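To illustrate the input format used throughout this study, we show a single complete record. The first block contains the structure-token representation of the backbone; no residue identities are included at this stage. The design step must infer an amino acid for every position from geometry alone.
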């Protein structure tokens, strides 16, 4: 769980090169207490945004470009391991630098947390182990792929 006190603190969760691309959802009020993840889509489409935090880390934001929908065949989300058609699971990409992007097949709406909580509710189990694994997969993509320091140093 983490707290975002102001709009500025939310924007500071993103890398400086991504901040100009972030458009906050209308009606967002602060302070925000986020239990695991905060996600939203750009109002005009084309981008989705994720903010999460690892234990003892700072909130970390990733701005993803949506790359259209995939074929209407089942795909599995690399993060929550739920399956969906090309409209539900697709290739989302984040900028690595000015010339390169890094992609990952994940839930198009970044609804992994909701899906894992729904699955746990249906099975009568706790969602916490699955949510902790989800945050670790997100962290691995940010840390290893995008080279984001999850402690906040250098942001």
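Output of the design step:
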């Amino acid at each position: 769980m983490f707290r975002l006190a102001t709009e500025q603190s939310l924007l500071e969760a993103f890398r400086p090169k991504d901040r100009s691309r972030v458009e906050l959802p209308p009606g967002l009020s602060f302070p925000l207490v986020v239990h695991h993840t905060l996600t939203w889509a750009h109002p005009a489409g084309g981008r989705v945004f994720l903010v999460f935090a690892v234990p003892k880390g700072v909130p970390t934001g990733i701005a993803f470009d949506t790359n259209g929908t995939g074929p209407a065949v089942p795909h599995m989300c690399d993060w929550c391991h739920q399956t969906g058609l090309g409209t539900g699971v697709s290739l989302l990409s984040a900028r690595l630098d000015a010339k390169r992007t890094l992609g990952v097949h994940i839930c198009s709406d970044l609804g992994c947390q909701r899906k894992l909580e729904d699955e746990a509710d249906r099975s009568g189990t706790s969602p916490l182990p699955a949510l902790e694994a989800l945050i670790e997969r997100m962290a691995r993509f940010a840390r290893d792929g995008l080279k984001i320091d999850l402690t906040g140093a250098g942001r």
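Structural context for interpreting the output: The chain is about 25% helix and 25% strand. The two ends are 20 Å apart (CA to CA).
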